[in-house]
Amino acid sequence: MKKFILTLTAAAFALFGSLAYAQTHGTSEDMAAPSKKATKEEKESAKATRRATSKEMSKKDEGRADDKPEAAGPKVKVSKDEKAKAKAKRKETGTQATKEGSGRLDDEGGQKK
């Protein structure tokens, strides 16, 4: 039992011990220099530049798609009777398709008849 625990401990050190040193940088490796934070003035000037650029682009109408959506057309009022007839027709078509078994597949992969 002692040999098993000793072996298990050695394996754990071998596996997890290398992970502890995986992210360290050696003396020969270069690291990026930490960047300094932008000052409030720099942020404001960048914002002003972006706004000016956006205004120029909007004046020139840049950045827009050439395709303009078409209007849906005028609305047509439909009476309740017409709606009921259309619903009954759809229901009848669906019932007929169900009776014929169109589009339905059984478990073996063939069509039902």
Tell me about this structure.
The chain starts with a helix and ends in a 13-residue tail after the last helix. With 113 residues, it is mainly alpha-helical. The chain is flat.
Concise structural overview:
By secondary structure, the protein is mostly helical. 54% of the residues lie in helices and 0% in strands.
Question: What's the helical proportion of residues?
Answer: 40-55%
The count of DSSP E runs of length 2 or more, i.e. the number of strands, is 0
- Characterize the main sheet: none
**Backbone shape:** flat
Structural class category: mainly alpha
Count, helices: 3
Query: Which band does the percent of strand residues land in?
Result: under 5%
Secondary-structure element pattern, one letter each: HHH
Distance between the termini: 68 Å
- Poorly predicted runs: none
Supply Rg: 36 Å
Give the overall average pLDDT: 80
Lay out the secondary structure.
Elements: H1 2-20, H2 40-60, H3 80-100
Features:
about 110 residues, mainly alpha
